[in-house]
Amino acid sequence: MSEVPSPRLRISDQDRESALTALGEHMSVGRIDIDEYGERSAQVTAAKTRGELSGIFADLPEPHPFFDAPKAAVSEPGKPAWADIPPMQRIMGALLPILFIASIALIITTGVTWWFILVPIGISAVGEGIWGKGWDNAHKKLGKQRRRELDG
Q1: Which is nearest to 53 in space by CA: 88, 90, 16?
Q2: Quick count: other Cβ atoms within 10 Å of Cβ 9?
Q3: Contact 141, 134 (CB under 8 A)
Q4: What is the gyration radius of the CA atoms in the chain, in angstroms?
Q5: pLDDT one-digit tens code per residue, 71-127
Q6: Is the Cβ–Cβ distance between 41 and 31 less than 8 Å?
Q7: How many angstroms from the chain centroid is the CA of residue 59?
Q8: Strand runs labelled E in the chain
Q9: What are 7-32's pLDDT values in tens digits?
Q10: Which helix (H) or strand (E) holds 119?
Q11: Can you tell me the distance from the alpha carbon of 140 to that of 134, in angstroms, rounded to the nearest whole number?
């Protein structure tokens, strides 16, 4: 077996799954029987380091467990979070707070009746009907999702 990088490094559940998959392949081609598969799979689930896991495969040819499997890319690197939001939705999401402020300013300064505030509320309702509930906060949700992806 080839040299295992960092044999004292602790393994993840993904590493254990990789090892169990490799054991299954060895059993399917007849290198190990069902009893030995059971023993080795128990050792895999109890293993804590790369060295312990690689020792289980010392007498077997490839495939071996693959360490540090790359995580599936969730989004394109360098692509800003707001790029996933349609342009019209971005424009309306940016204009809506301005419309609320302008409506309140017009009501206070010119004495226009209170119903004028229904204009931005109506636009918000139309936006919700077109893009779904919370459409004006979609950029915040994407930002939170992106931070969770980067953290974990």
Answers
A1: 16
A2: 15
A3: yes
A4: 28
A5: 544 555 555 566 667 777 777 777 778 888 888 888 888 877 777 777 777 777 776
A6: no
A7: 37
A8: none
A9: 888 988 888 988 999 998 998 899 99
A10: helix 118-131
A11: 10
